[in-house]
Structure formats: C-alpha cells, structure tokens
Amino acid sequence: MVLSNPNRSPATLTKTRVKPAPISGICVTCLDGCPGPCEIGRSAVRGRELLYPMPFGQVTAGADKEYPCDFSHFNIQGTCVGAIGMEADPDKAIFPAVDVSAQIGVDHKVTLSFPCFTGALGSTDIARIHWEAMAIGAAISGIIIVCGENVCGMDPQAEIKKGKVVRSPEMERRVNIFKEWYQGNGHIIVQANVEDGRLGVPEYVIEKLGVETFELKWGQGAKNIGGEVKLPNLDRAKQLKERGYIVLPNPLDQATVEQYQVKGIREFERHSRLGMVTEEDFYKTVEHLRKVGAKRVTLKTGAYRPADLARALKFCSQAKIDLLTIDGAGGGTGMSPWRMMNEWGIPTVHLECLLYEYASFLDRRGEFVPDIAIAGGLSLEDHVFKAIALAAPYVKLVCMGRSIMTAAMVGTTEGKKLAEKCAAEAGSSLEEAILETFVEANNLRRQYGKDFSRIPTGAIGMYSYISRMTQGLQQFMAGARKFALKYISRDDLVALTEEAAMVSGIPYVMDADADEVERILGYRR
Predict the structure, then answer these.
(1) Max alpha carbon distance in the chain (Å)?
(2) For residues 277 and 307, what is the distance between their CA atoms, to the nearest angstrom?
C-alpha cells in the first residue's frame, strides 16, 4: 500500500509523464529529452523554489498523503434512548436546542458561540489579504481568530528602535478590526515565535494594543522548522535581513545582487529560527507575559515526537496554561516545505490518541489538565464532533485553518463577481444581490442594520460556513442524545477498522456495546 505521492503534486504544479514507480515516484521510463514536468526535472531548473507549494500567496495547501488512520475510520454512535443534558421529551429534545457554545481559560474565561477557531494567520500574503474578512467573520460568528507569527517583523511600515518594535500599523489594523466588530463571544489571540520575542512583540501588543491573550509557539503540524515566506524583490529581502531574519539567498552578498540583476534569482525566502524549548525558560516566559498584563497565556505545539507532547502537557499543567493547541501532521499551510508536510510528524488521530493517554494519566494523579484544542486537517462538523470525542473530556475546541479561510476566500470571490455584474447592469443593487446570494445575509442585515453594508462578503461567507457547521453539529449531537458539548464522550465513537481500534482504544464496531447487549439479551459473541 503506497501512502505517498513522491515526485509529483498539484501543490508543486508538477506531474509525471507516464506511470511512476511506486517507491521513487520517478517515471517507470525516464525519457532523455523530457522537459521536466516532475519535481526532479523542475528542480533541475528552479532548485529550491520547488520545495514549497505554489503559487505563493495565492494558495493554502494540505498534505496529500493517505495516513493509515484518520477521522473517517471512526463513526459517530447514535441512539434512540433518552437524552443527556435535556429532558427526554420529544417536544424539548430537538436538535436546535443543542448547546454548542464552549468556554476556555482558567481564571478569565472566554466564551465561544461555536467550538472552533482559525489557524494562525501570520505574515503570508494570503493571511494579510484576507485578514479583514476573517477577523470580522470571527467577531460576528463568536469564535476565536489567531494573529500569527512575524506580523510586526514583516510590516514594511513598522517602527523599530533599539531592536524593539514601537509601532506596527499592520498589527494595529489586525487587532482593531476584530475589536470594532466584537460582540461578546469569541476572542483574538496574538502568537509569537523567536523573532517576535526578540522584537518585543508580546510587550507591544499587550501594553500598547490591549491584547489580553498571548500564544507561545513551539511549532505546527505542517513543518518542523520555523515559519517562512517568499519575498518578491531585493529591497524587501534586505529590509528583513537587516531586521534579523534568516534570508536566502543572502541579499547582502554581492554575488546574490548580481544574480538578481540578471534575473537568475526571482525571489527570496525569509525564515524564522528554531525555538529551543527548556522547562525553566517556558515558566519564566509565561510568568513574564502575565506580569506585563496578559490575562491568558496559551501554547501552540506541533506534530513532534511523543516525548515533546508529554513535555507540552506537563509544562502547561505546571504553568496552568489557559489553552494548549496540538496540531497534527497533514493539516494545512500557506508555505511549508511540501515534502516535509507529507513525510514529517505524527498524524492528527495518532497524536490525539497519545494525548488522551497522557492527559488521562495526569488527571488520575490529580494534576491540572489544561483546556486543549486539536488541529490538523479538520474541515466539517463531523470532524468537530469526532475530535472532541476522541480525547474527551479534555478537548474543548478544534482549530480549523484551511477550511475557514476557504469559506472566507469563496465569499470574497463571490462578492467580486456580484460587484462586477451589478456594475455592468444599470439599476442593479449590490446589496440586493448579496441578499439573494448568501443565505445568511438577511440575518446579518437585521442584526447590524446600516452597518451591514460594511461587512465584507468574505466575512459573510465565513459566517455562513460557521452557521452551517453549527446546525450540523447540533444534529450529530442530538442523534447521540448529547445536548451540550460537555456530555460528548469517547463512548460516542465506534472504530470501523481494527487498526483504528488498536490506535485509539475505541471499541471496534463489532465489539461495541458488548456488555449492554449481554445485559439486554443475555448474548455474548
């Protein structure tokens, strides 16, 4: 069974000429004279550019590796008996009555209307371009949006004095957009990596911009190196090199300048440094953030080896972190090395099953277990239910990166099409066209009145997507007779394969409910 697709992928705009050999991915007959449609051939011409999904700044990418166990290998159990969290009355136990709101935090709670939040929208072009739609969409949907790493450092207009950021118009824009539309549910979190810490981003956003929740970042599921983006020209590359980033090739090297001038180099890469985690430094950093005014401190970690998952849980337990987000391999990226994204890290289901074992152990010992979120390739309401159930009662939220951005991007695209159509048709009303096209638009108009016209169609698209998932999750939960998120349990899942049962400890479908069946029938397989 071949799980990977080496040497060709839509993400790298490559393919093979004929059927590839299963192991190498090279065409069974590699033809002398082939122009190089495969990754190897194109790498012979463009080298390191083929490491990343493309075109940069216009796509998000998800791994195309088929993992041996994923969420589709589990089904949600339903029942026709009773109701938990609601009176067992057919007139009351209806799916619209299911409560899908969630809370996270230790001393200062944050309430969400739906148990999800965005992936970290950092310094990539696609995140910057779609921030307004997604920030407004998060605010009106009552969910969390995360402003990712390197935003201040990448801001061309940022004012940096003595190595510290004193003002970043781009960061101000991002925070202020969310705050303007915030309705009481949901939240904004700002994230930091090594470079952000050196630039003083935590202190700046907490003390100057009033950000209440700050996220430390150990990594993500898409890669095991620091964040990176592509830079379009030499001047931009020099600016970021001078700000302390790793920039390849070195824009200050005369040989690089000469190669750029003859167009041999068409773009540069900006990379972040690897974080070096130690227990002592982690506790010191958390304490520092709290001292400068952070009401909540969270941690985002990636698809690292099991020992690092254990470290994350233990450190967060000791520090009483407000939320720990664990990102499994295979999810999504704006720019990560493509082969790394497919061939590195522990997949989401496997990682969450390890998480359940470790969290249960801490819980049995009476130690604090933080609120936990799961990320890594989640897209629809069944994923939300399964991710919460698989490590219940510890997982409270899911992080949905590509899917939420997809909804916002489609909303934006549809809005542009409507605007062009209305501009070409005399007497056409764009607002009326939006009301006809987006199913949730009229609800928003009733709620926001004259401000409805200021809501981007990307935000309407995101709101509509969250609304769809809300009803979908309510339906799954009503079918399981669970009328609030806190009642979802591992017993609500059944494993469809013996391997999924072995990995998770969830009963195989043919063994499920064996004790209850014996009690009812006196029968045992």
Answers:
(1) 83
(2) 13
Q: What pTM does this model have?
A: 0.95
Print the SS3 string covering 354-388. HHHHHHHHHHHCCCCCCCEEEECCCCCHHHHHHHH
Q: What is the dihedral of CA 25, 27, 29, 31, to 10 degrees?
A: -130
CB 180 within 8 A of CB 159: no
Which element (helix H / strand E) includes 199?
helix 194-199
Tokens 């999924």, residue located:
500
Q: How many residues does the chain have?
A: 525
Half-sphere exposure of 489 (CA within 13 A, CB side): 6
The residue ranges of every structural domain in the chain are: 10-51, 228-271
pLDDT in tens, 67-98: 999 999 999 999 999 999 999 999 999 999 99
CB-count exposure of residue 372 (10 Å: 0-12, 13-18, 19+): buried
Cα 274 from chain centroid?
20
Helix (H, G, I), strand (E, B) or coil at 325: strand
Query: What tokens were used for 502?
Result: 């072995």
| pLDDT tens, position by position, 308-337 | 999 999 999 999 999 999 999 988 888 899
The three-state (H, E, C) secondary structure of 402-423, written as one string: HHHHHHHHHHHHHHHHHHHHHH
